[in-house]
Amino acid sequence: MKKALALFMLTVFDIDFDLKQANVTDSVWHNVEGDTKTEASRKPVPLPALVVEELKNWRKTTLYRSDGDFLFPSVAKNGTQPLTPDMILRRHIRPVLKRLGVTKQIGWHSFRHGLATMLRQHGVDIKTAQELLRHANSRITLEIYQQAIGDEKRVAQNPALRRLLGGNVLQHPSAPSEGA
Known about the structure:
It is elongated and about 70 Å long. The chain has helices at residues 49-61, 85-99, 108-121, 126-133, 138-145, 150-164; strands spanning 15-16, 21-22, 26-29, 32-35, 45-46. It has 2 domains: 1-95, no CATH class; 107-168, no CATH class. With 180 residues, the chain is mostly helical.
């Protein structure tokens, strides 16, 4: 199934400033608007207080501040359409990454995979990660999106290696200790 970006279909009305959440109802894929993929995709997304404050400030200054206006409107289309996701990648995100020396091809799902891994790195439980990523089930989060963290792998392998070598595990001085 094709992936869709709900972020670009958000309207001002979809932001609940009091509850600090975005209510996702639509998505866009190759500039075609439609419904979200799954029921999980339609669940509200919590917004950090910092983001809510920035959106409030933005709403005061933008030309497109009515409830029905897109949160990320295309100025070239006089606000009648949302920004094009691929254009944002091509014109803004990828050039910045290139200047930073990042050569890997980055797409929108790169951000989702990165978030999933960061949530794991910070000890966020799988159910919370699943819901923040709005996956239909936790298997998707675990098996596709999250990556094992290097330190986790090192900590996991050390007891086995120690047992094999009779407790005489040699470790480089700069490597993290087992408890770290």
